[in-house]
Amino acid sequence: MTTLEDVARHAGVSLATASRVLNGSSRQVGAMMRARVESSARLLGYRVDATAQALARGASNVVGVVIQDLTDPYFAAIADGVVRAADRHHMVVTLGTTYRDPEREIAHIATLNAQRARAVLIAGSRVADERMLGRLRAELEVYRGAGGRVALIGQDLAGTDTVVPLNREAARDLAVALAGLGHRRFAVLAGPPRLYTATDRAAGFREGLLAAGLPEPVMVPGGFDRDGGRVAALELLASGPEITCVFAVNDVMAVGALAALREHGLRVPEDISLAGFDDIAPLRDLVPALTTVRLPLARMGELALELALSEPAAPRLVPVAGEVVLRDSVTALAGPVQRNLTS
């Protein structure tokens, strides 16, 4: 196997010079000497050591993306946006999944720091746990102190650049829109009570109903996934309230709720209306088409990478608004409903 020493000897240069040329050091090497080293490397079939490159540059061309659930289309869409943006910068993306475990999130960041990743992007909701949040901030501070760059997608709670989806505001808009269709009795499948994204969306929806002069919705907590939505909907049905519209705080929960409603012989929207949040891609095949709030998920991933790769500055916040999309899963109780059928 050809070594860097072999290349240096063949090119007639020092080992340090060969390393600067082939491992991407920021120190300049003259054009003629660089050409000699590169020519020798080609002739000898030398392959660059990625670890040595990272040491020479102070950082690699790797972007670490830490997400909470690889099977959730929400995170898949964000990761796809990061990968496409990274390609334009000739960077490589590595992906880590936390399974919504804050300990795993911190461990991923420490590993990426040890690997000298150029940037770390963290996508997902924070959990209402000040001890874990403090540990996350400390780990990110160590990574930034070593020259790494960080951007989050979620709540502005870590003291770093953050892409902030306006969950509360968009959920409020959705509630107002549904109230405008004549619905008066609502239930909210509210997700986990300590997950900020879930609580923000549930609170915003409640605020929208109160602003419309409507009573409090029935609140049912549950898991933040398809099974959680199904179980929460079954619990709602067992309690027997008179409801005309159900709001699930994310789309995968809404899919689970739809299954539960069908199991009980209820038709959507003829018997009960249903809405979600996120506008994930698989909704394109759902029948009936789901009313939801559209977030530009891939664009959020791109924005996070742009923040991370830009010059370090004071923490910046990039708010991202959601768009209410009315589709066939909701029917009007007073007058016709104008549905947005775009995917």
Task: Give structural notes.
It is a single chain. By secondary structure, this protein is an alpha/beta fold. The protein has three domains: 4-57, lambda repressor-like DNA-binding domains (434 Repressor (Amino-terminal Domain)); 62-165 and 298-320, Rossmann fold, CATH 3.40.50.2300; 167-294, Rossmann fold (3-Layer(aba) Sandwich), CATH 3.40.50. It contains twelve helices and twelve strands. The N and C termini lie far apart (53 Å).
Number of strands: 12
CATH fold category name of the largest domain: Rossmann fold
Structural shape: elongated
The average pLDDT is 89
Q: Widest sheet: strand order?
A: 2-1-3-4-5-11
The biggest sheet amounts to: 6 strands, parallel
Instruction: Extract low-pLDDT stretches.
Output: 54-58, 335-343
Strand-residue fraction? Answer: 15-25%
Quaternary arrangement of the chains shown? single chain
**CATH top level of the largest domain?**
Alpha Beta
- CATH homologous superfamily placement of the largest domain: Response regulator
CATH architecture grouping of the largest domain: 3-Layer(aba) Sandwich
- The helix/strand order is HHHHEHEHEHEEHEHEHEHEEHEE
Supply the helix-strand structural class: alpha/beta
- Please report the number of helical segments: 12
